[in-house]
Each structure stands twice: as C-alpha cells, then as structure tokens.
Amino acid sequence: MSDIITVIAPVNIAVIKYWGKRDEDLILPLNDSVSATLDTSIMCAKTSVCARADFKEDAIWLNGKKESFDSPRLQNCLGEIKLRAAAEKSVSEDFLQRKVHVCSENNFPTAAGLASSAAGYACLVTALAKLYKVKSDVSSIARLGSGSACRSVYGGFVRWHAGINPNGTDSVATQIVDSTHWPEMHALILVVGDTKKKTSSTVGMRIATQTSELLKHRVKYCVPERTEEIIQAIRQKDFPKFAEITMKDSNQFHAVALDSYPPCVYMTDVSHFIVDLIHKYNTASGSVKVAYTFDAGPNACLYLLKDEVPKVISLIKHVFPTSKPESFITGLSSGEEVLSPA
Ligand code: DP6
Question: Where would I find the Diphosphomevalonate decarboxylase-like N-terminal domain in this sequence (predicted)?
Fold first, then answer.
C-alpha cells in the first residue's frame, strides 16, 4: 500500500489582471498581478495523488475522465517537483522512479473563465509537493501549470511578482495580507454562461502580446501604479479605492482583448448589463459599494462588503426575474487544505 494525498485548493479572482507573457514556456508574465483567494466551501478543486511501484505509467483523471499526461504543462510540474525532491533529498531514489496517478475534480463550470485552471494546478502541485515531501515554495511550480495558479497557493490577498530574471526564479507569488485581515470582504460570482470560451487565455494573451499597443501602455504605465495603490487600499481596508481600481483594471484588460488583432471578445451583453447595473447602484448609493471584475469569460465576480450582500442579491433577483444568473457568495480563504497528510 502507498499513501494517497488529497488536497483541496481555492480559486482566485484577480483585481489586477495578468494578461501577456514575456516567456510562454516558463509562463512568465509581462506584469505583476493581484488577486483574492476565495473560500473553498463554494468553489474549489480537489486532487488526490499516489505513487506506487506497480503503476505502469503516469496517469491523470479530470472530473472522472482519463486525460493524456503528455501535456508539457503537466510534465513540467511533475518534473520540477521531482527535481526539487531530489535536490532536497526528501524521498528515496526508488520513490522518485515510481509512476504517479492523479485524480482531480472541481465543483464549478470549467473553461468558462472561472479560474478553474488556477485552482486545478495549485491543487495538483500542492498535492505532489506533499507526496514528494518538497518543503520549498511551490508557487513557481504551480505557475508552470497555469500562470494564475501560482496565486492560489496562498490565501487572503496575493501578489504575483512578474520578476525580471529570464529563468523565472523571481516570478513567484507572495501573500499581501491573510484572510483574517478584511473579514467583511466577500465575492459574489454571477455565472451568466458556462460554455467553453472561444479563445483560451493562453491564445488570447499571445495575440495581445504580439499585436496590442494598448497592452504595452498598460504594462509600462498603468499596472505598476495600480498595483501599489490597490495594495495600499487593501492594507487600509479602503473599499471605494479598492473597488475603483478593480473595475478600471477589468475594463482595461477587456479593452486590451479588443485591441488585439484579431480581437478577443469575452464579455457578453449580459456582462455589460451587469457593469451598467453596478455603476448605477454605486451612483444611487452615493459611494462605491460594489466592484465588478471579469476574467476571460462572461461571468462576473462582484467584490463587496458583507453588509451589502443581501441588498445586491435582491437587486440581482429583481433585475433578472426569469433568467437569473446562478450566483455564489463567498468570503476569502486561508489557502489550500490537505485532507490526508502523509
Ligand atoms: C484573465 O492563468 O489561465 O484570468 O498562464 O496561459 O494558463 P495561462 O493563463 P491563465 O490566465 C488567467 C488570466 C485572467 C487574469 C488573471 O487571473 O490574472
């Protein structure tokens, strides 16, 4: 018998978006990004891993379906974990030679721009790190699976530093504050569609990096200032400032997607309706009470403080009386959880 390690990992939703790579193989971003890690009770990935001498091949099942282990991203994650384990001498040579089986599932619409790859790879890498008893920071290994995954390794608010080293050693995630810092902060996810996105993040970023002039401007002039400002707003629990930067950054990311050639369109009429609704709600409230942000898909993530939650849920029910978007409300998470430690 051999130990099975099971880990659950949270999704994270960026408030300063990562969009564009300086190195596609190592998944090194053009700019820093900032996100909140959401509570695992509503949306999470769950992964079990096991290495045994009698396994014939590395194998992976995603949501119950066997998938190929040949993807370079998977291979890079497993390879890097084994290299670290060898360097740290954390397991025997015999254990390193064994094949590994991975079983992963998540409980939310995949490929609909809901950060499923972030939770999935953070979970996989954390589980493998436990299996191979790797002690060093694993955010840079999760990054090799999917860039945004490196932020799901930590709870609370997290910054992914773009770094400048060509080998990516300084492109790691660090925690800004933990989940207890701003307990009133909540996220309301509005699922307006769960169809697979037309252009994957990876392809969308590639086109933007090659063709968008606006992306160059964003990386050089907008993101550095916004990143410092939003971190200060988070530390000071300044919701209106936090919300304004979050919305502006989401809008600019989608403007970059449209500035790409050919353009990438991720938001739908319903997404734009929600944007309009939130601005009207904030105006009627006399101050900024809710922020929206959209990843590479039509679904909205609203950030809001706890007091505002019942009012905003009523509003959503009121304006979408027949075709309500499915909604999930959640607080922030303290990070991944190991369900069966070795
Ligand atoms: C819009 O991390 O999915 O959600 O690194 O190519 O796997 P790859 O991309 P991915 O991109 C996420 C982009 C985003 C913004 C963000 O999460 O920062």
Answer: 9-173
Question: Hey, which of 201, 215, 226 would you mutate to test ligand 1's pocket, going by the most ligand atoms within 8 Å of its Cβ?
Answer: 201
Give CA–CA dist 43/324, Å, rounded.
Answer: 19
The CA–CA distances, whole Å, from 24 to 28, 88, 254 equal 7, 28, 21
CB of 17 within 6 A of ligand 1: the answer is: yes
The residues near 322 (Cβ < 8 Å, ≥ 6 apart) are none
Find the distance separating the first CA and the last CA of the chain, reported in whole Å.
13
Alpha helices for 57-198 (secondary structure H): 72-88, 93-97, 116-131, 139-145
ipTM: 0.99
Tell me if the pTM is above 0.90: yes
Q: Which residue is closest in CA terms to ligand 1's atom 14? A: 295
Phi, psi torsion values for 105, nearest 5 degrees: -145, 160
Asked if the bond preceding 325 is cis, omega within 30° of 0, the reply is no
